[in-house]
Specification:
The chain has 142 residues and is of the alpha+beta class. The chain has three helices and nine strands. The strands form four sheets. The chain has a three-stranded antiparallel sheet, with no helix packed on it. Strands 1-2 form a two-stranded antiparallel sheet. It binds iron/sulfur cluster (SF4).
């Protein structure tokens, strides 16, 4: 492929759609090192060449300027970038403080359709076995 006289590299990279736990097979179009499009994998054992409307657009977030690239922690009413150790410590401190002050059922866990079944299983395990609440819900139910 040529653009303004410059030869562009182009390749298709097999991958998995990350928008839900179904795991449809995609081919990411990569042009000059940038992900520019999505095609379905026709021989994929999950999706057999089909993608939903979200799957066709799965490449769009890769180079988005709005993409979060670091965890955020609220401090003084503002969200501030931080490292993962600090963010996870803030989550653990917040969860244990609320559960201690108001009881475990004051805490709720909200799972995501973008996670795998195994990740959602671990989230409910954290809620039930560690915090001690059955308050677990999922965005796909809304
Ligand atoms: S969002 Fe759509 S294309 Fe992506 S894995 Fe789920 S069903 Fe498949």
């Amino acid at each position: 492929m040529v653009d303004n006289g410059k030869e562009l590299s182009y390749r298709l990279v097999p991958s998995t759609c990350v928008y839900c736990g179904t795991g449809c097979g995609v081919l990411l179009e990569v042009m000059d090192g940038r992900v520019t499009g999505t095609l379905p994998q026709k021989d994929h054992p999950v999706s057999w060449g089909a993608l939903c409307v979200k799957g066709w657009a799965v490449h769009e977030f890769v180079h988005s300027e709005r993409r979060l690239t670091a965890p955020l922690v609220r401090s003084g009413g503002e969200l501030k970038e931080t490292d993962w150790d600090t963010a996870l410590a803030a989550v653990a401190e917040g969860l244990s403080r609320v559960a201690k002050e108001h009881g475990p059922d004051a805490v709720g866990f909200f799972a995501s359709a973008r996670c795998t079944n195994e990740e959602n299983y671990l989230l409910q395990k954290l809620a039930r076995a560690v915090v001690g609440t059955n308050n677990v819900d999922h965005c796909a139910r809304l």
